Amino acid sequence: MKTKKITLFLSLGLLAAITAKAQNGQTPVFGGTVGKTLDDSKEWWPEPHKAPAGAPNVLWIILDDVGFGATSTFGGIIKTPNFGTLANNGLRYTNFHTAGICAPTRSALLTGRNHHYVHEGGFSHVTLSAGFPGYDGRIPSDKGTIAEILRENGYNTFAVGKYGLTPDEDATDAGPFDRWPTGKGFDHFFGFLGSATDQYKPDLVEDNAHVTPDGRHLTDQITDKAIFYLTRQHKVAPDKPFFLYYAPGATHSPHQVAKEWSDLYKGQFDNGWDDFREKVIARQKQLGIIPKYAKLPERNTRIPAWKSLPEAERKLYARFMEVYAGYLTYTDHEVGRLINHLKQSGQLDNTLVFVIIGDNGASKEGTAHGVINPKKNSPKLATEEAFLKTNIEDIDDIGTPQASTNYPLGWAQAANTPFKYWKQDANSEGGTRNPLIVYYPKGIKDKGTIRTQYGHVIDVLPTTLEYTGIKLPEYIRGIKQDTLQGTSLVYSFDHPEAKSKHVLQHYYIFGSRSIYNDGWKAEAAHHPDNVELGDFKVGQNVPDKSFDEDTWELYNLNEDFNERIDLAKKYPEKLKELKAVFEAQA
């Protein structure tokens, strides 16, 4: 008995020494009493992490490479009935923005901080990262993700689909795994770590290991897995809220979808991209998505008038868009399956849903003629005429599992209606303006209405925290947390006329840059003719040049929301002021 008491005395003394130092937010300070023996000591157990009473489930949905004017939900022609249902029973945000390309957008979204600030100025890929703090592609641990925050506050956390933030050299089954989704706060992950993958033969990962895909379309697989995670959790802990990050690879290339979906649009794009733009802008005005005064920007000089094209080219290009439209409608269908599961399981009414339709504008990476089989068709290996001829011959391969499809540039501009330019162009609204839907049956009062307050992906995290009543933890896993940079949008939920609170935002992708300040915007396209980073170029690939040679433009977005009237010469002092603000931000 004497030996037992001495051992207990030593153990309790050691525990007291440890807990006295454990005031770093990870291990709670011991709240009992440590005496010499058990008889003169008082036991204590820390309270487990619990979400606030009645805290809603949280579902974030983000699509890939979808232009502002693509979906019927925001005035487009491509049918998205499930997004429409969410928007008609929630809020449509029409002045919401992304970073202009995938990894920067997703890092900003998940952390509530600007993408350079979390080291994602480019990508986590070796070829597109650099050895500087803003560009090394490694999100620091003091800038915790929404998954880490919510897990610290009693949520289960799941992610399915595209992650895109794991450094290439860490993305093997040997790890390290601290920059995989499971190392960034997700209890479970099923999807792919890179920026893009084949939809039928994906580079598939579950938790911390690669797994063999089952041959079905990836979006089908990730939806099934999401439903599985939610079903399993709800059965065991029905009162515990969940956070689900649903990020399909759709509609990033390769555009691959079953023929039953693409055939829904057979013949519907035969009138071409010029007709598409005219129809979409009219629908957007009718729905109140854009101002009545809006006019279309001029067709980009690199895009031919549809009526000027030979019949074989028109047939080819129309098929590209039929496949893309089917791909987007299919994605909407899969989101509908997920929402229907929540409804049937009785969880939807207490689920706060954010739908971001695109992590950037429509992709300009499909060349002038579209891409079907890139290895076979590389312009480096053939003339433009031979490239086009091969595409025409391979038209039946578009969208199939054996092809790696991306539509031509003309459809990218059409899908971005009513804006100029496209993905990668951080200077332009066409690269950075994407629709947002907020849906919460128990909390959204003004259902089916539009919000025009300025927003950015860094705002979704603070919006989620404010609405759920959760504070940013001072520490996560023992690491003191940095401040957030986003602005909560909750102030606008019940107040459509509220003045924007997010009034300053910078953008920068691969040299293209802009600065927004309370309705005014200054911007510069560093490489206006460099259409794509990879093998496929449209127009001239301009050699690098001095940033001092760039031409800056100035727009008053309060009066000219889609950047048609350059005011740089009219207001040179305003331009100078905004350029100085950009430099300060940089």
TrEMBL record:
Q: Give start-end of the signal peptide.
A: 1-22
Q: Show where the Sulfatase N-terminal domain sits.
A: 56-470
- Keywords assigned: Calcium, Hydrolase, Metal-binding, Signal
Q: Name one GO molecular function term.
A: hydrolase activity
Q: Which Gene3D superfamilies match?
A: 3.30.1120.10, Alkaline Phosphatase, subunit A
Q: Which InterPro entries match?
A: Alkaline_phosphatase_core_sf, Sulfatase, Sulfatase_CS, Sulfatase_N
One Pfam match, given by its short name, reads: Sulfatase
Instruction: Report the sequence similarity comment from the record.
Output: Belongs to the sulfatase family.
Q: What is this protein called?
A: Arylsulfatase
